[in-house]
Amino acid sequence: MKIERKVLKEVIYPYAVSVYHVGDRNKVVCATELDGPCSAFWTDTLEEEILWEGQGGTMNTWQIADNGDFLAIQRFYKGFNSRASRIARVERKNGEWVQSVVCDVPFLHRFGVIGSGDNRWLICCVLCKDKESREDWSQAGWIQVAKYPEPGETPEFRVLVDGIHRNHAFFYGRFDGTDCVLAGGDEGLYRIDYPRDGHDWICEKLLDCSVGDVTVFDLDGDGEDEIVTIEPFHGSKIVVHKRIDGKWDTVWESATQFGHAIWSGTIFGEPAFIIGHRSLDASLVLFRPRGYKEGKLALDVTVLDQWEGPTNVAVNHADGKEQIFSCSGNKNRIVLYELTK
Q1: Which pLDDT does position 273 carry in this prediction?
Q2: Beta strands 178-185 and 188-193: pairing type?
Q3: Quick one: DSSP state of residue 149?
Q4: What is the DSSP letter of 199?
Q5: Where are the alpha helices (DSSP H) in 93-183?
Q6: Which CATH number fits the domain 2-340, given the four candidates 3.90.930.12, 2.30.110.10, 2.130.10.10, 1.10.10.10?
Q7: CA angle at residue 31 from 302 to 307, to 5 degrees?
Q8: Does this model's pTM top 0.70?
């Protein structure tokens, strides 16, 4: 496998990165921890478009329309300076990108828009209630939900799960064949199913361990999803959890330091996951399963880069290549790794 590395942009403390599908093309949207630009790069040409200037503190963004309109967290600044964090709506109007404030949500670290059509919901994971200092984690966060607010509407939130310290982990996608959210922190990892098929919100605790980040994929190809976690918050280990006889067991574990970026899916059609470390060698690492040995998952390990300190990554599948977009927090740049066989 050949790895080609390209620096797309120099920017202070890049953080959020997501792939958007716009028409028959894809673009990657990137934003920063401090005040700075939000940029989009078309994956086929790498042409850049500036979506906003100046406003930052963006932990994640979320596409809400086929034309690329999106929601974004703003004002969650580096160092947990986040009492003024909010959700902004960013829309394409008359050839320009226009922002409006949806609502204020202090210490909002992750959010998503889940469901479809008239059954869309806004889910928000609040890191903590408040902080007296950077090191103060005494006040727990929570998970709250509201009907998706159309332009001009203010969401009315309902708390689903309260009492989560360091409420940092968040995943939305297919799990056990159903779209759902996995979220949590020190008190464990929760599965959250939104209302449909006649049921209300369903919350189920999956793991009792302290979880900092999470992703889900069927890594071993047996038809059942595994859970990949970084544990605990800004964690010291990477863990693959597999459900065996109805219980989640550890089938692989590796030490890390300040594990943060996490992704899972396929690379060249085969299951894989990616982890980014913000300390030690600050590496970006690709893991590809190769069956089991003595009951433990065997993995091929490819170090894609070192010393970059990835905060988050996103993957785009292109013709004949895989594109891994990484926000390199240590080196203040957005980097593309193109993999070819």
Answers
A1: 98
A2: antiparallel
A3: P
A4: B
A5: none
A6: 2.130.10.10
A7: 35
A8: yes
